[in-house]
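User: Run a structure prediction on this.
Assistant: Running it now.
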Amino acid sequence: MIVSWAQPPVAQAAPLCRTLDQHQVCVLKITRSAKYYWEYRAVVKIDDTRRPMGRYNCRTSEYVSREGKHISDDMATQVICSLFKQ
């Protein structure tokens, strides 16, 4: 009798990609803030350039980098916030 202890493959979500102004914006990882439901923390890739984890504020439509730099009207913010509109 042969017993196999092989683990089943782990399911991974495919990145969510959208095209905006001829740029491909892919959301690689995303979490929602529990305290501020309009904010998301996400890792995004724009045209093969990976952006580190940052905060995307859907109320003010701005991206806040880890260093605290605020970028308003960011294309990644537009994509993330459009995914969760009601």
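Residues 75-83 form the longest helix (9 residues).
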